[in-house]
Amino acid sequence: ATADSGASTIFDKIINKEIPSTIVYEDDKVLAFRDVNPQAPVHVLVIPKLRDGLTQLGKAEERHGNILGRLMYAAKIVAEKEGILDGFRVVINNGPGACQSVYHLHLHVLGGRQMKWPPG
Ligand code: 5GP
C-alpha cells in the first residue's frame, strides 16, 4: 500500500470520540485537539470533520476552497484561545518527503516558545 491509501485514519476515531483527545476548538466543520506528541508548549492539530478526499494538501481541488479557509481561520481561533497570537506557526506536512504520518489533512498550530527558522 502507498502512504496515502485513502483509507480512514485514527483521526476519524478522534472525530467520532472513539478514542479520547483534548479538544481545544470545535464547530460544525472543524475539530482542533492537542497533539499527543507535542513539539512545542502549544501543539494543536486542526482537521476537517469530513475528509472529503483531502488525505493531504496535495489532493486539494477547487471545491475544497471553503474547508481550506475554515481550517486556516480555525488555526487563528486556536492561537487566540491559546494566547500565542504574538508568535505561532502553522504547518502542513505533505507526503513522505515531509514526514506526513496521518493521511487526513491537518494543520499543526505550534507556539509557546521561540520558533526557529528554517524549521529543518
Ligand atoms: P503528520 O506527521 O502526519 O504531519 O502529523 C501527525 C500528527 O498526529 C503527529 O504530530 C502525531 O503526534 C499526531 N497523532 C498521531 N496519532 C495521534 C492520536 O491518536 N492522538 C493525537 N492527539 N495525536 C496523534
TrEMBL record:
Coiled coil: none annotated. Transmembrane segments: none annotated. The active site is at 106 (tele-amp-histidine intermediate). A motif (Histidine triad motif) lies at residues 104-108. It comes from the Eukaryota. Residues 10-120 form the HIT domain. GO terms for molecular function: adenylylsulfatase activity. This is HIT domain-containing protein. The chain holds residues 77 to 196 of 196 of the full protein.
